[in-house]
Amino acid sequence: MKGESGEPVSEPDGQLGSVEQEARTCPVCGTKFFATADRQFCPVCILRRAFGAEPAAARERDPGCGSADSAEDADGGSQVRRFENYEVSLDDDGKPIELGRGAMGVTYKAFDVDLQCPVTLKVINERYLGDESARLRSLREARAAARLRHSNVASVLHLGRTGSSYFYAMEFVEGKTLENLIKRSGRLEIKLALEIATQVAAGLAAVHEQNLVHRDIKPTNIMVRLKEEGSVTAKIIDLGLAKALDESASEVGISMPGAFAGTPEFASPEQFAGVGVDIRSDLYSLGVTFWVMVTGQSPFQGTSAEVMYQHQHAPLPLGRLQDVPQPVVVLLEKLLEKDPAQRFQTPNELLKAIPTITGAIETRRGPHAGTCNTSPLPPHASELESPQQDQVQRRFP
Amino acid sequence: MVAGVGFGRDQSQTGRAALAALCQIYRYPLYAFARRRGHSPHDSQDLTQGFFLHILEHRALSGVDRLKGKFRSFLLACFQNYLSVETRRAHRLKRGGQCQFVSLDLESAENRYRYEPADYLTAEKIFEARWALTLLDHAMTVLREEYVGRGKELVFNTLRGYAGIGENTSEASYEEAAKALGIGVGTVKTFIHRLRNRYLAVLREEVARTVSDPAEIESEIRALCDALIAAEGLKL
Description:
Largest sheet of chain A: 8 strands, antiparallel
CATH superfamily of the largest domain in chain A: Transferase(Phosphotransferase) domain 1
Strand content of chain A: 15-25%
Order of helices and strands of chain A: EEEHHEEEEEEHEEEHHEEEEHHHHH
CATH architecture of the largest domain in chain A: Orthogonal Bundle
Oligomer: heterodimer
Largest sheet of chain B: none
CATH topology of the largest domain in chain A: Transferase(Phosphotransferase), domain 1
Distance between the termini of chain B: 37 Å
Number of helices of chain A: 10
Radius of gyration of chain B: 20 Å
CATH class of the largest domain in chain A: Mainly Alpha
Shape of chain A: elongated
Number of domains of chain B: 2
Distance between the termini of chain A: 88 Å
Helix content of chain B: 55-70%
Number of domains of chain A: 3
Helix content of chain A: 25-40%
Radius of gyration of chain A: 27 Å
Number of helices of chain B: 9
């Protein structure tokens, strides 16, 4: 504090000890104040900031969470959001831990304050749920998804509504997304890719048993956990787009009948065509995912329109599979048939075929093949036979 | 109201200790109020300490939990009432006895009061402005204790000046702090971000303790800001 002369003066602080105070003018609001060692900031600004009217702005930034019970904290982006008994978890910086973000909404890590366990929370904005019939359909699908219990599918635990948003609470799955794993590794070893594909197919079989279609199988919707001993666990997550099979062909989108729902890069030709989809569509998407696992790139790239056209009409760029064992190439071709009737008809068919593929690879490698590394860990490119050199039977049992 | 303290419902030892703690925090604003009302330094000292003893011994705040509104306003109203009663007495009672828990350093408090803003401010406004600053200081004390408890006293001492908004934000000052802590500038910024967030969180918790309803928080903050603005600059 300064006296009339402007000299600093000594004054007791809150602990009644002597501290120096110095006159300052806030560079933000212009308020004059006296700074101490512990309080060098403008008291008016700090109070306003701590209790400022920022929640509304934050909600605008994040429409997916617009109706959560929220308490904005000081830095604008930080807030505690509650969806019934689920509280969105925050990182060290006080920001919500976002696990994913898509067209339908945002997925967060959250905590069930009643059961005291972590969950995955997907918040879907009402505008994606459309009219009453769409809401009922969504409810029916959620119920079907909730019945689904399988070790390779993250369970849906709860469907709720807070304000204008619906939310799904799902089993929280430890590990990384398959996308992260691929990005880190460039591409996966064949054996690891086959193991992941097998587990995803097992999960799809459970989806199929419930007469559901996932509609958004892709690396970001598959959680992978690599264990020290070299084993791997893969789980399908995000049944938020799952569709009941008894919908009419026009109801391909939850809230936008006739509209495309999914991710273009991994969508099947029939998804783009706006016709009815079934589990074979998911198998196509698994095929694209498998392609990405073994090559590090998706088969069709470009703008959404270009990708859509290629999925529907372009031949597969098999030339990019130079380093992929021929049995796997054959498997990819089967999975990525344009015509659903030419693909595996069910996940179980795929599950039966995979051991044949694995056996063919092992047979061709032989005990001293050496160059074909099918060890699940660590990933990295191996010198594998080219498709042209291989004459594996292109038929599956 | 005063959820963290539990007045009224909790007259146990714990409750009394919690009340004593709050008295420690907010004693100076009441002292300033008494001085502003014309009481001498010694009388103000006695009145402030006597008031808190009165509260504790007579359970004067036993109905606080059932009241609506702000603890600050209620406490001031109680204090005003207490001053009226006391000043009507012909003699000043010996207060405090052996109780030392609300030790108000008279000299320090008086030194502090000498620098309160100029004459046209009401005693109530001064009380509110001092309450706001006490609140801010207490939040910083809590924050310091947290950092010290985690063995990060150096981090706190180096970065406490950044808790505000728009302060010390030059790159050079970040570099200076980074050098002092032996870490990178990026880490310094992260530490500052966390410190600031935590400080504001503590501040919110402290304000929330003094209102009966979360809806009161906004008006409480507005009142405190108004008081700070009214008191600003008068000593410059």
